[in-house]
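Case study 2.
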Amino acid sequence: MALPRARRRTLLSLLHATAEELRTQTGSRTGVERADVFRAVLRPPGRDRPPAQRTTGPVRNAAGGDVLDTVLLVQTRDPAVAAAQLRSSRISALQTRLEGTGASTLVFAGTNVRRIGDVGHDRQGIFLFNYFSAEDTEENLHAWQYTAGWFQQQTGLDNSTVLHPMEPAGGYSLINHCRWDHLRDVLPALILRPSFRRFVLRTFTEHRTAAHPVLYRLDG
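Prediction:
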């Protein structure tokens, strides 16, 4: 699922350069709290896009897969700051440089609409970005809330934030972000426990919601 190594190194280098610029300006003046870069390591089981949503399709990477291979996550004080950063020349220049390498991009500002707990980025781990697509965002939220307990019970999850794009974002309705210490904390439950498909994926289907999960590590 990963991009060719040389291209991925180029993309990561561009993301790190922008993240470093943002970090030097964190604080009350800018409203930027932190910036972190992630690289994909694995796409775990999920659920394909509901039929009514398949015409738009998820964002595709340069290798042609339905995967967001690298991520720059910028956390801000409030939604207004996030929207301003999205419109900034810094982010516009980054997007132009990324697309100049042949990569597809998805850039959006989002608000945190649900949470289990803050996601820690101060140490390495396995980080999930689950890109949901749904016909109705409220249905999507209900499915997330209904299945969150399964992840808490079966994987020991104690953190999660759900982002709602403030404007259309590649057909995605919500993005769930969370962290585990190790891959073994989450992957066996997704592969070996029948209740994952019988309960979690079935719940998504019943709520007309598709999940496109990707597991990442912090890069650098």
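Confidence is low (pLDDT under 50) at residues 49-66.
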